[in-house]
Amino acid sequence: MISNTTEEIVHKILNKISNNNALSPNTIRTGITSLDNTIGGWELGVSIISARPSMGLTAFCLNQVNSLLQSIQNDEVIVYVTDKDSATVLIQRLLAVATQIELTNIQNGNLTEQEVAQIASHPITKHLESNRLLFITNSNPTLFQIRSLVFNQLKEGKKPKMLFVDCLQSIIDRGRDRSQDITNVMLDINLFSQEYKVPVLCTISLRNRLVEYRESKFPRITDLDSRIVNEVERVFFLIRPDYYEIIDLPSDDIGELHLIIAKNEGPLDILKLQMNSKNLSISENTDTFPYTQI
User: Fold this and answer.
1) What's the pLDDT tens digit per position in 124-145?
2) What is the pTM of this model?
């Protein structure tokens, strides 16, 4: 548990009010205006985003990476930890998100000369060639590996901008092998965020199928382990309404993606986004509706 004095909390609130709710210097924009307006951007601490399989958790994270790379400084790096995909697969997806070129064409090398030139000249390619994005791809990643990577980067004059853990269960399961319970794992991740001054976003796959048997297909915060929920700043869920036939299937490649803000210092809401199934890019839809309507 992270301890804060009431003085620190009051100063934080007053500073936010005096700045007309502008993002603080330590806050990172999400690239989604409605999300920034609701949560204030990514701040120090741990956030989790959860969903049933095939809802777009990794796609959401890669869209965030793409947004971060657009404003990254020369002395900053982004760390992405995954137990699911290789770095090659993730970079292919990231290039599709950034360039809007179909993912299958990038994977198969079925590109026109213009598309090849577009990828080669895109700013994200330059950032990747400069090692602004670092991967840890391991079936059982550990916080020790993450700390070692960040420590080595700091020795080289590079500081972490944000940490993505996709997915959190892989670290928790590893922790259990060391007789370390979920609460201690979450405490370690929170300490990492505070020690290195870096926001952390973790994905959690909803392994239970309770949502499949409910009349309402929207995930609930009670679907998650309370020991995780209690130790994080924010909780988000993703749902594709067309997957559960809540809405009609899209007639083109653009489908609705709802981002549920289930835990937050500020308001709770559901943000209506859209995702292109061919290049995995996520963009904003200005229509919103209140969380209480679930």
Assistant:
1) 999 999 999 999 998 888 899 9
2) 0.86
What's the number of domains the chain is made of?
A: 1
Task: Residue 163: give its domain's CATH number.
Answer: 3.40.50.300
DSSP-assigned letters across all residues of 228-294: HHTT-SEEEEEE-TTTTTSSPPPSSSEEEEEEEEEE-SS--EEEEEEEETTT--EEEEEEEEEGGG-
In a domain, 219, yes or no: no
Can you tell me the distance from the alpha carbon of 45 to that of 47, in angstroms, rounded to the nearest whole number?
A: 7
CB of 270 closer than 8 Å to CB of 290: yes
Q: Which contiguous run of DSSP H or E holds residue 193?
A: helix 182-196
Element containing residue 59 per DSSP (H, E): helix 57-69
Q: Are 52 and 211 in contact (CB under 8 A)?
A: yes
Burial of 288 (0-12, 13-18, 19+ CB in 10 A): middle
146 CB burial (10 A radius; 0-12, 13-18, 19+): buried
How many Å from the N-terminal Cα to the C-terminal Cα in the chain?
31
Look up residue 164 and give its two tokens. Answer: 């993505």
